[in-house]
Design goal:
mainly beta, 16-stranded antiparallel beta barrel, two-stranded antiparallel sheet, 30 strands, 48% strand, globular
């Protein structure tokens, strides 16, 4: 092919590719501003009609179309399931974009001069054509469903106001002054999906990650600049449908420990997790993610769940660490003894254990307030043990969840044991045990329920019965209220044992969640926390906090 033909073909290729990308993005922007409900049509003078269809539903977890594979068997609800599948159907139909410009390996097929010679024996129908659609996010899939790609993101922006008793903020050993503030809590972008049917991937980058070099606990004074450095959260591959093993996950991931830790940040019923999140080294300093390999699956018609893995114990959120040993073995088992009315009534009970080699033979428990006003290094520490020398760290967890229609009750208790511990002056302390628990109650005023994912044993996304929107015929009337949920939680933590006294904490958190639609949520939390600093009996008192969050994710 000559130079002129090459330039003409390059121009044609660029034009067609640009047209396809711009067309898809335009449709995506239209879809993201429209409620994904059956019967809605988005007209456009310059684009083909985009309509909603309920012919197929796509799942929330593995992003595979819901179908009944060969060898499927009946679940407790009568639906077909497989023990190793990660599929879980979403509760609304996706927004189909069938007329969006197709992305195809034969993009230049309209220009014969630009076409490469076809492979011998390759048929035209073997070209891969992607179809785009909207299902709480932008997806691309192919007709045979072997490939599916989702692009999404999360934006959480918080505002917080505080008042605290002077005895707590001014005496030595206290918390310091609490300051009102606003902060982007999370800004994340991700890509996930399925390739060649049995291989799943998930890549997510966090852009709001406060970091200070040389500060192991991550706490600094207010006059120090704290840069936000992008870091990896989830970054893994899953090979599913393996005989006996079920699913093998390799990469940066959440260790299978604690229900509230495993629940997605996007779906949390309160602005922050309980004190238990900061109690364990599973999640305290590494943002909750560790590199490793794990195996998980369900058994007995999805009534039993197992998940275990080997991980590298890390002191930072960047997905890497140096040090001989310093590994962790973590496992979780879950039972679902009650499952009725298509999942509107269920009871889950589970437990987890983690055996860990402490990083640099040091373990620190430092606890932050349950409403945040700044990046991590600038937050007030309301209780801390300091760095404790120990050669072994063993964690235990019990958790449960019960749901009946709009009512959900969740509880956890946790133990953090340090073996062969010493004080900073090398005074032997034997085994130190720190404990805590929480119990929370949630209730939907508008009749929704929190659905349970029987493939991962975590909660699903909340789907409002009616999206919040104005009546087009009468702007002063509402066509839907969204979903409204009330919540209350009691948290307790005891960091006092032997000669190492970190303090005791009690907190009551009240919450109101407003789900405008499946991808937009506003949260309002009031928190009452009583801090008893054992290091200084005078440094005790109450912190009153009020926070708001706007949560947008797709």
């Amino acid at each position: 092919m000559g130079g002129k033909e090459l330039m003409r073909c390059g121009s044609s290729q660029f034009g067609k590719a640009a047209s396809a990308v711009l067309g898809t993005l335009t449709v995506f922007l239209l879809a993201s501003t429209t409620s994904a409900q059956p019967g809605i049509t988005i007209p456009s003078s310059s684009l083909p009609a985009v309509s909603v269809t309920s012919e197929r539903k796509f799942n929330e977890t593995s992003l595979n179309p819901v179908s009944t594979p060969a060898g499927a068997f009946a679940s407790p609800t009568g639906s077909a399931t497989t023990p190793n599948s990660l599929s879980h159907a979403s509760e609304t139909a996706p927004l189909e974009l069938p007329s969006a410009p197709a992305v195809t390996t034969g993009l230049l097929q309209g220009n014969a001069a630009c076409r490469s010679p076809p492979d011998k024996g390759k048929k035209a129908d073997e070209e891969i054509t992607f179809r785009s659609y909207w299902d709480h996010g932008l997806y691309f899939t192919v007709p045979d469903k072997q490939f599916l790609i989702h692009f999404g993101g999360t934006l959480q922006y918080d505002s917080a106001w505080f008042t605290a008793q002077p005895s707590l903020t001014r005496f030595p050993g206290g918390t310091g002054m609490f300051e009102d503030g606003t902060t982007p809590r999370r800004i994340r972008f991700r890509a996930d999906g399925t390739v060649y049917d049995d291989l799943e991937f998930f890549i997510e980058i966090e852009f709001i990650n406060g970091f200070t070099a040389g500060s192991r606990a991550g706490m600094v004074t207010r006059d120090v600049d704290v840069p936000t450095i992008p870091s990896l959260t989830d970054g893994y591959l899953i090979h599913k449908n393996l005989p006996f093993l079920g699913n093998v996950k390799i990469g940066n991931q959440k260790e299978p420990f604690s229900l509230e830790h495993l629940d997605s940040d996007r779906f949390l019923p309160f602005m922050e997790r309980s004190f238990l999140f900061d109690l364990t080294y599973v999640s305290e300093f590494n943002n909750g993610y560790s590199p490793g390999i794990s195996v998980f699956r369900t058994w007995a018609d999805d009534r039993l769940f197992t998940h275990a893995g080997l991980f590298k114990n890390l002191p930072d959120p960047f997905g890497f660490g140096l040090g001989d040993g310093e590994y962790a073995v973590t496992g979780r088992v879950g039972l679902l003894p009650l499952w009725q009315e298509a999942g509107e009534v269920y009871w889950y009970f589970g437990g987890a254990m983690s055996h860990r080699d402490p990083v640099d033979n040091l373990v620190t428990a430092r606890i932050r307030n349950l409403i945040r006003n700044a990046p991590g290094p600038l937050l007030n520490v309301i209780a801390t043990t300091g760095a404790i020398p120990a050669n072994r760290n063993i964690l235990f967890n019990l958790d449960t969840a019960y749901a009946r229609g709009p009512l959900t009750i969740i509880g956890e208790m946790q133990s953090n044991q340090l073996h062969n511990a010493t004080t900073a002056n090398n005074v032997p302390q034997g085994t130190i045990n720190y404990t805590g628990f929480y119990i929370s109650t949630l209730y939907f005023l508008t009749g929704e329920h929190r659905s349970w994912n029987r493939r991962t044993y975590t909660f699903n996304r909340v789907i409002p019965n009616h999206h919040f929107r104005l009546d087009k015929n009468s702007p002063w009337h509402l066509a839907g209220l969204g979903a409204w949920e009330l919540g209350a939680r009691y948290s307790y933590l005891d960091l006092n044992d032997t000669l190492i006294r970190g303090g005791r904490l009690q907190a009551v958190t009240l919450g109101l969640n407003w789900y405008l639609n499946p991808i937009t949520k506003m949260q309002f939390n009031y928190d009452w926390t009583y801090v008893d600093q054992a290091a200084n009996p005078l440094a005790k008192g109450i912190v009153h906090s009020f926070g708001t969050r706007i949560n947008f994710e797709f």
